[in-house]
Amino acid sequence: MEQGALSAIGGASGVSKLHPMTDTAGREWFIANKAPMRYSEYDFKFAKTILQRHFPEQFEDIQEAIAQLNTQLGRGVRPTPAEALTELLVQRGWEREQYATPYHTHLRFDLKKDKVAIEIQLSDPADCYNDFLKFLLSYNLEVIEVGVEIVYDDSVRGKNLPHLSKVQRDLEVYRRVLPCPVWLIGLKEDA
Question: What is the pLDDT of residues 100-128, one digit of tens each?
């Protein structure tokens, strides 16, 4: 078992029992059963509508993976929320570390399935700008039709964390230069 895996369940409210989850690398995590993870959202350029109508499988994958995410949010949590969410999506057929474009092999999306790319940005808000660039390039080259940016809701406390309200403001600033629809999701703390 991965060191520190149990720290992800400490203090969780509504825990009924622990169940093991094995990731695609063969590591075993013990996850707490608790209420589904909640999230806030911002629908930039009708991204959510595009997902619902043209990519319903990917839309459902994202919603189900977030609902099944059973970890505390913030820094110092193991497995990290990004690792846990990535594993849940990989189990649904998403591919990790996919090239953003055939011409920019140094730029990779966290996850991609068909024409939908996901960036999980839970550590440094400045990295969201790199994500915007990847979405822009891939969208303009018709590699993707929609991007999904996953950050923290404003209710998650911590220094220098990417929060939904900040990323939403940034998207609005870049509205004229970023043609790619982006569904912005903010993971929420337990109530």
Answer: 888 888 899 999 999 999 999 998 888 89
Q: How far apart are CA 113 and CA 136, in angstroms?
A: 17
| Residue 190, token pair as written in the block | 């337990």
Q: Count CA atoms closer than 13 A to 186's CA, side-chain side.
A: 21
Q: 127-140 vs 164-173: helix axis angle to the nearest 10?
A: 50
**What are the CA-CA distances from residue 64 to residues 36, 61, 101 (Å)?**
9, 5, 28
Give the CATH number of domain 35-187.
3.40.91.20
> Could you state, in order of their start, the residue ranges of all structural domains in the chain?
35-187
The pTM (predicted TM-score) of the whole model is 0.80
Q: Tokens 């509205």 identify what position? A: 175
Q: What are 30-63's pLDDT values in tens digits?
A: 455 456 788 999 999 999 999 999 999 999 999 9
Nearest to 81 by CA among 168, 131, 7: 7
